[in-house]
Amino acid sequence: APPKAINPIPNSPLVGSGTVYSSQSVSRIKSIIMKFSAVFAVSVAIVMVSLSSTAHAAIAAVPVVAPAVPINTNYDPLPQYTYAYNVQDALTGDSKSQQETRDGDIVRGSYSLVEPDGTLRTVIYTADPVNGFNAVVQRGPLVPQAVVPVAPAPVARVVG
């Protein structure tokens, strides 16, 4: 099975379980939470002041200061990467591969593995801001590897 994917498209969930969000998405969520917290704190202060019997004096005493929002300096406006791996383990029978390329907001890739019934499953996927995440699953027979016959080793005769 392929490793868990990082969601390449903001506001577009990946199909399947265990969605992992990029550090950019997490930073964006943190920023929204901090802004909401500031608005909520100010709202509570205003309600408390309006309920107070000394409202006029209290309004002057409550400073309204929004918390500083941290700036994410790790943002890459055009992320790019390519990776691939291939496992062919004759001892365990494990056979799988994956490759993926990202260029900005466009991700393309594929992975394949041998199912327990011996069929080959290949998944070809793309993700972009317009179409979201799309995958095409192909199943087919496993192509057997050609067996190369090995000639027997010559036997040396001992003359004595």
Describe this structure as you would to a colleague.
Pfam families: Chitin_bind_4. It comes from Anopheles albimanus (New world malaria mosquito). GO terms for molecular function: structural constituent of cuticle. This is Larval cuticle protein A2B. 22% of the residues lie in helices and 29% in strands. It has helices at residues 23-51, 55-61; strands spanning 80-88, 95-103, 106-114, 119-128, 132-141. With 160 residues, it is α+β, with helices and mostly antiparallel strands. Residues 13-18 have low confidence and may be disordered. It has a domain at 80-141. A five-stranded antiparallel beta sheet has the order 1-2-3-4-5, with no helix packed on it. Helix 1 runs antiparallel to helix 2 (55-61). The chain is elongated and about 110 Å long. The relative contact order is 0.13.
Descriptors:
5-stranded antiparallel β-sheet, single chain, alpha+beta, 160 residues
Brief account:
This protein is an alpha+beta fold and about 160 residues long.
Strand content: 25-35%
Q: Give the low-confidence spans.
A: 13-18
Helix percent reads: 10-25%
State the separation between the terminal residues, measured CA to CA. 62 Å
Q: Using only CA atoms, what is the Rg? A: 30 Å
Would you tell me the structural class of the helices and strands?
alpha+beta
Mean pLDDT: 74
Assign an overall shape. elongated
Quick one: biggest sheet? Answer: 5 strands, antiparallel
Name the helix and strand elements from N-terminus to C-terminus, one letter apiece. Answer: HHEEEEE
Q: Number of helix segments?
A: 2
* Annotation, overall tally of beta strands: 5
Strand line-up across the major sheet: 1-2-3-4-5
InterPro entries: CHIT_BIND_RR_consensus, Insect_cuticle, Insect_Cuticle_Struc_Prot
GO cellular component, one term: extracellular space
Protein name: Larval cuticle protein A2B
Pfam families: Chitin_bind_4
